[in-house]
């Protein structure tokens, strides 16, 4: 097939990959519906995809991965910077020469009987000054079809790139899915990603975690912007004014739910609305007004299916009703539809589980869907998608929210005293494992800014970059911390969560607008009890007071964990963070 571009940088690189992988055929993805349709048909013929009930789920397909290939593999993920030191203590490292050599051995001739697909894609709206271009070379139709949902693909991207050399070079080869030879290599200094022997989304949809977080975080360091693991949300008041916030949470803390939150009935009646801009990643830049503006670089949601239902996340469920690819969920053979745990109380009797085995959901003790089964759904399907979600220059951010699952220490919400203090709050972010997940309650895992697995360089330098951005922005967002998961002595949650979290977001916006005062505390500003609206909730002021209290003993115990974590970064831990730690210690005395 004729190349779709004359860009010699692109063509030279593609020739090199062809020489390495020796594909039987090469196809450029132009993004046309005609081409995508024929790829879907081919995938259905080969069994790679299964069409679902087209009346119930128009344009939807089903896919299964190998049972050993169902999640991101952090121990097989490497940052291949020239200097080991620059990958930092929180990343796996291999030297670029070793990684290229090993990758070449594995990818050599790996496409001999296969077609190579060349996907030009844009992260962010095509042509926006905030967007970046990448190519993914892959031997998987599943990857092509998922990338077509998650990013903007095709000729229009090449037209914007013209003959520039500024693009990310991604190579993905399924090879033979050998888990012992599975690697996800990132070469931040070369704008390059190589992924082999996996077919699971998080390892192979290279625009997402690999580019939009690991490579982009390094690009942001060099180019004065930020790539963050953050959702973006707009809150509209009855006057029609919209304020935007971003939020970073470790996994299993309700990020997608917050991104698509539906405000409580009383607020909706008054005219409040919530708009979804993004559910996973933000790219943030300082604009002329000194504020940080954010775009969602993605075009779709790659969401966890189990637990998604009409009550927990109506908008996410509605997003999956058309043009969606489901991976590793259960199948209902009676009507050729999908099912997953907690979707409803009516699991299929005549089903197949995620491994393809006959499965009766009414009697089986086994799970039907893999706990990390996913939907890949177009963002434009989301009922709450913001009218500004594709604004080329992004949306202005009033507040950034960090959060984690903390049974005791962190109050429902608090505000940092300054940007510098906010960076400290983000850098010490932590979440506790639940009894259900590990058998052990309260094991604290540090996950700074929810970026632990996604920062493409030394995390000490990443903290310094955050501090620097706050100095460069004359009007940066205010930084907050939330905790929806505080419990009482019986282990019961004190806060109802879900849509009711809107009440906390309302306080955050009021603080940004200087509409309410706050109480100073050793950890930052706490709400005055009367300023969080609990009308219509089964909640007393005493209980709210408990939720907002700061227990010095548990905070002092936490400090030990913070010190231990900070020690990892040696002399690359910015002094400002050491100062903030000392301030916290003194405040708690
Ligand atoms: C994701 C993740 O899939 O954070 O978004 O792992
Ligand atoms: Mn994520």
Describe this structure in words.
- The model is unreliable at 435-439 (pLDDT under 50).
- The protein is 30% helix and 23% strand.
- With 589 residues, the protein is α+β, with helices and mostly antiparallel strands.
- The protein contains 17 helices and 31 strands.
- The structure holds oxalic acid and manganese (II) ion.
- Oxalic acid binds at residues 72, 202, 251, 280, 302.
Q: How many β-strand runs?
A: 31
- Please identify the structural class as seen in this structure: alpha+beta
Q: Regions with pLDDT < 50 over 5+ consecutive residues?
A: 435-439
Report on the biggest sheet: 9 strands, mixed
Q: Name the shape in a single word.
A: globular
Ligand roster: oxalic acid, manganese (II) ion
Roughly what is the average pLDDT, rounded to an integer?
A: 96
- How much β-strand is present in the residues? 15-25%
The number of helical segments is 17
End-to-end CA span: 71 Å
> What is the radius of gyration computed over CA atoms, rounded to a whole number of angstroms?
24 Å
Proportion in helices: 25-40%
């Amino acid at each position: 097939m004729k190349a779709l571009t004359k860009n010699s940088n692109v063509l030279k690189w593609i020739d090199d990959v062809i020489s390495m992988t020796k594909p039987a055929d090469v196809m450029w993805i132009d993004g046309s519906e005609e081409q995508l349709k024929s790829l879907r048909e081919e995938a259905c013929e080969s069994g790679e995809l299964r069409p679902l009930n087209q009346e119930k789920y128009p344009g939807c397909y089903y896919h299964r991965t190998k049972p050993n290939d169902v999640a991101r593999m952090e121990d097989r993920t490497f940052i291949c910077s020239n200097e080991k030191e620059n990958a930092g203590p929180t990343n796996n490292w291999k030297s670029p020469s070793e990684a290229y050599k090993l990758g070449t051995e594995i990818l050599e001739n790996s496409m001999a009987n296969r077609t190579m697909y060349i996907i030009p894609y844009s992260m962010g709206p095509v042509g926006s000054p905030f967007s970046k271009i990448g190519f993914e070379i892959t031997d998987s139709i599943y990857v092509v079809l998922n990338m077509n949902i998650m990013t903007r693909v095709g000729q229009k991207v090449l037209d914007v790139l013209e003959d520039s050399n500024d693009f990310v070079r991604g190579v993905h080869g399924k090879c033979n899915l050998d888990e012992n030879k599975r690697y996800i290599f990132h070469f931040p200094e070369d704008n390059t990603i190589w992924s082999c022997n996996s077919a699971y989304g998080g390892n192979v949809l290279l625009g997402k975690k690999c580019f939009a977080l690991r490579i982009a975080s390094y690009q942001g360091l060099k180019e004065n912007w930020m790539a963050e693991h953050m959702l973006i949300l707009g809150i509209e008041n009855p006057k029609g004014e919209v304020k935007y916030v971003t939020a970073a949470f470790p996994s299993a803390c309700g990020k997608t739910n917050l991104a698509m939150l539906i405000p409580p009935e009383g607020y909706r009646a008054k005219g409040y609305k919530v708009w979804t801009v993004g559910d996973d990643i933000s790219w943030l830049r300082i604009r002329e007004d000194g504020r940080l503006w954010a775009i969602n670089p993605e075009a779709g949601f790659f969401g966890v299916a189990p637990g998604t239902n009409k009550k927990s996340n109506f908008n996410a469920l509605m997003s999956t009703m058309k043009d969606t690819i489901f991976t590793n969920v259960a199948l209902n053979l009676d009507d050729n539809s999908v099912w997953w745990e907690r979707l409803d109380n009516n699991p299929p009797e005549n089903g197949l589980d995620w491994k393809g085995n006959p499965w009766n959901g009414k009697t089986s003790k086994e799970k039907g869907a893999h706990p990390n089964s996913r939907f890949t759904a177009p963002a434009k399907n989301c009922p709450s998608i913001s009218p500004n979600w594709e604004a080329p220059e992004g949306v202005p951010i009033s507040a950034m929210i960090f959060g984690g699952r903390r049974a005791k220490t962190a109050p429902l919400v608090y505000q940092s005293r300054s940007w510098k203090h906010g960076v400290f709050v983000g850098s010490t972010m932590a979440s506790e494992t639940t009894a259900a997940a590990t058998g052990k309650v309260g094991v604290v895992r540090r996950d700074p800014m929810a970026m632990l697995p996604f920062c493409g360089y030394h995390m000490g330098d990443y903290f310094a970059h955050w501090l620097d951005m706050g100095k460069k922005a004359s009007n940066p967002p205010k930084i907050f911390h939330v905790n929806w998961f505080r419990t009482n002595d019986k282990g019961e949650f004190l806060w109802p969560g879900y849509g009711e979290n809107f009440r906390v977001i309302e306080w955050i916006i009021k603080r940004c607008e200087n509409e309410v005062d706050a109480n100073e505390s050793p950890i930052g500003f706490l709400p005055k009890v009367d300023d969080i609206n609990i009308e219509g909730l089964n909640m007393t002021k005493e209980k709210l007071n408990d939720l907002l209290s700061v227990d010095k003993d548990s905070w002092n115990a936490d400090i030990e964990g913070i010190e231990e974590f900070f020690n990892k970064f040696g002399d690359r831990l910015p002094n400002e963070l050491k100062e903030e730690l000392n301030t916290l210690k003194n405040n708690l005395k």
